[in-house]
Design brief:
Arc Repressor Mutant, subunit A, single chain, 14 helices, mainly alpha, two-stranded antiparallel sheet, 360 residues, 53% helix
């Protein structure tokens, strides 16, 4: 209760979380005080009840291990968030005013055959008047060099980046040729020590600044939207990234606390979004990561996320759990002794009942 009184103001969420935690611990303690489940050998579904080492605290320990794993992932995401914050990319622009007007579906609609013949004859008369003969000198340039020039211009278009497939469609070349040209450009930019670099993020290719120049761009283009995420938001985002699609209730079961605010923050930052509805009572919202999530952490795809097993940490967890129960003034009970004393009491009662019957 000292934990509750230490709060500056009444927080119903915090109070409810504390009550849930206390109820969970009391439930585990009550199971520890009860006799062990009976051994059932006839049903495979109850094989777990034959385990002499059955411990009601196992569920709590498993949940703590799961939560520790996502806390480790959250720390990893925080490191990637910092590394990505040192690289600035050009914000997308609206290029619609510069786009050409769409041509009519049929440019000769409304014209008659006589109009076409007259236009053709006019073109022939113009050709007869031309007397200047010009020799066209062919520039020696490879297809790959031309592709690289076009790609460089596309990077300056102000969009959020283009996929290799989109670039290949624009330059009308094979994706393998475009991919090779981009790899050469990446190496060339790095070797020449240019002030920009070519990034592959979220499945697209775009220009970005170098991390060592971050201080200058922060002065020029600092954006509050790039502020660091809180620990709660990072933990929630880690769970969504690895368990998507996932509901808010499932997130809270892993974290053990309310996550509504963290989810609201992540949605506003366009890092997660609604991807559907779960087939459950109330049709809860399912959340998943966005393309902005990949860009925010400098990832090309979700496959670049580390294996979750790298963050599993169960060291000293049983000792810490035991310490938690001791702090709650929980004393262990020798169930075997209790059971034997109960049997003795029962036998005494039976003998007494028999004597009473004989006397009667």
């Amino acid at each position: 209760m000292a934990y509750l009184h230490s709060m500056q103001e009444l927080e119903l969420d915090i109070t409810s979380e504390f009550l849930v935690m206390a109820a969970t611990l009391l439930s585990i303690k009550s199971k520890l005080l009860l006799p062990k489940p009976p051994v059932i050998e006839d049903f495979e579904d109850y094989a777990y009840m034959e385990d002499e080492d059955y411990d009601p605290r196992a569920e709590l320990i498993a949940r703590l291990i799961e939560y520790r794993k996502y806390k480790g992932i959250a720390r990893h995401l925080h490191e990637r968030e910092w590394e990505r914050s040192l690289i600035f990319s050009k914000e997308p622009e609206d290029l619609r005013p510069y786009m050409p007007v769409e041509a009519q579906s049929n440019p000769v609609e409304g014209l008659h055959t006589s109009d076409l013949i007259a236009a053709f004859q006019k073109a022939l008369r113009k050709a007869e008047k031309r007397t200047t003969v010009t020799r066209i000198q062919r520039d020696e340039i490879s297809v790959k060099d031309r592709i690289r020039d076009v790609i460089g211009l596309l990077f300056l278009s102000g969009e959020e980046g283009l996929s290799i497939k989109q670039i290949a469609e624009i330059v009308d070349q094979r994706t393998e040729l475009v991919s090779d040209a981009i790899e050469e450009m990446i190496a060339e930019f790095a070797n020449q020590g240019r002030g920009v670099q070519i990034l592959k993020l979220a499945g697209v290719v775009q220009l970005g600044t170098l991390p060592e120049h971050a201080a200058y761009f922060e002065k020029l283009a600092y954006s509050p939207a790039r502020t660091s995420l809180s620990q709660a938001a990072l933990e929630t985002l880690a769970i969504v990234a690895y368990r998507q699609p996932i509901t808010r209730v499932e997130i809270e079961e892993i974290r053990g606390v309310k996550s509504e605010r963290a989810i609201h923050t992540l949605v506003n930052k366009d890092l997660i979004l609604e991807v559907g509805r779960a087939e459950a009572i109330g049709r809860p919202i399912l959340y998943g990561t966005t393309k902005s999530f990949l860009d925010y952490f400098g990832l090309a795809s979700l496959k670049d996320l580390p294996e979750p097993g790298l963050f599993e940490d169960s060291e000293n967890l049983e000792e810490e759990t035991q310490l938690l129960f001791e702090k709650l003034d929980v004393q262990h009970v020798d169930l075997d002794l209790d059971n034997s004393s109960l049997e003795d009491d029962a036998n005494t009662i039976d003998i007494t009942n028999e004597d009473d019957l004989m006397d009667s």
